[in-house]
Amino acid sequence: MSKYSVHQQPVETLLSWIKSGEIAIPEIQRPFVWKSAKVRDLIDSLYQGYPVGYIITWRNPDVKLKNGELSAGKKVLIDGQQRITALTAAVVGQRVLNKNYKEINIRIAFNPITEKFEVLNKAFEKSPEWINNINPIINDEVSITKAIRAYLKLNPEADEDLIEDRIENLKRIKTKQVGIIELDHSLDIDTVTDIFIRINQKGVVLSNADFVMSKIASDEVHEGNKMRKLVDYFCRLLVDKDFNKHIIDNDKEFAKHDYYKALKWMATGNDDLYIPDYIDVLRVAFTYKFSRGKFSDLVALLSGRNFEARTYENDIAERSYKMLSNGLTDFVNQTSYQRFIMLVKSAGLINQKLISSKNSLNFSYALYLKLRHQGMPESEIQHNVKRWLIMSLLIGRYSGSSESMIDEDIKQINEKGIEVYLHQMEQNNLGKNFWEFTLVSQLESSSVNNNAYNVYLAAQCYGNAPAFLSKSMKISSLIEQRGDVHHMFPKKYLAQNGYTPKQYNQVANFVYTEQATNIKVGMQTPKDYLAKVIEQIQDGVFDVSTLDAKEGLKENLKLNDVPDTLYISTHIDYNNFLEERRKLMAAKIKNYYEQL
């Protein structure tokens, strides 16, 4: 049996399917991204009888109802939404959202004499040679006879037979064929994705999350279309507070819904630490509520998939939509969201640049929601979630095939409980060998996006450590203010002595310091500038450093995990210094992790 069928349908049939719901168009509240000129080109191609590409649909499975009957699955649009939106705008006259989320009309003008199409503007509107709007003619709102008569009245010199022929051809646009590829419901998501990529010449990649979004957006029975808006609107409000006015003004129905009540706080909320996109929101809600990690499972469950009986049942679909709804509502809940952000910051992860893995954050939020839902005491939740977050960052838990890892972790936690599974993960991944060798070697890097280095900075923020050679300025303040990262062995000094950028930009050579200190140190050797700091302390002058006591200097170096050898170091000692400091940094991270 073929897994897909390819056929042609006239434009009017395609549009009637959309109107009747035969093809479920995802109600995507993202703007129509095509420029008006592209709509014009699509209409011109149809007029000329040129191919306009394929529409790809994926049939939902037939769902078994309570009375035993089968309900035929709708076709869900997988690719071709922009073309269909263009057709409904130009042919049907439907308004579309532009990039500023404003509803606009796209009117296409036609010149029967030259057979040219243009986007309507003032110049074409005033010219008698142009029919201002094609949709009333194509749509049968105006008869051909009336249209010809109106045109000839304005253009008496025009050839009547020619005009009649051209306007009739314009009307025939709705009978022009559009290719439709219908994929069978039995295909899995990976196969559908592969087909999509092969057909789509731009090489656009669909994620499984896109299938979930299309799935819920095309569902009205379980209010999936409103769930889609909940996700989209929340993500938009995170970065665009003015969008709230658009919801109130243009989506009054949604503004009355409980979903809007759940998310409207974000219109005045402020967060630049965790900025989830629609994939992240779905990931957290699904992992938390379903204790699964693979989006293909979610698509199947929303279709009513009974994994054991291999059938599709309405009860399962209904239950799955309800669970997803609860998961999404809990995700956007102000108390949960803000408490989770506070938890992350209290672990020292005070800035987005310290969090190298979005999926570590996503999983930790799903875990936080799960433990809260189970009624675990807040102090225990904080301990477990912080440790999981830092552990997953340190070992790069979700850097590879993240879906499989997420699926495995949430199932294990569901089965064994967080305490048992976390302890198991620590034993397997954070043993003596990790702290003393693996972590030390991870810090042998010149990349500031290094997981180990970012966790080290989080440990410094957690411990409220002071900036290098500073009495009162904290590292956390400098990170938040994008302060200077200083080379303890100045890079120009090392470069002059034959060191390469990869060598002098080692993260173990970095410390956060105040800009004034950085400038004063300049190209001096550590031996020289530290001697000057000691001299100034004795003289009561605070030029290079704000430290005012030798003990304070000693403590400052200790809190920045700087080996004592820095006092007497030149470039000859650089590599030994790095080796020593990496060990101290790793010990700091271990101590920090154990305190969480």
UniProtKB/TrEMBL annotation:
Name its species: Winogradskyella litoriviva
- Report the domain of life of the source organism: Bacteria
- The GmrSD restriction endonucleases N-terminal domain covers which part of the protein? 12-216
Protein name according to UniProt? DUF262 domain-containing protein
Q: Which InterPro entries match?
A: GmrSD_N
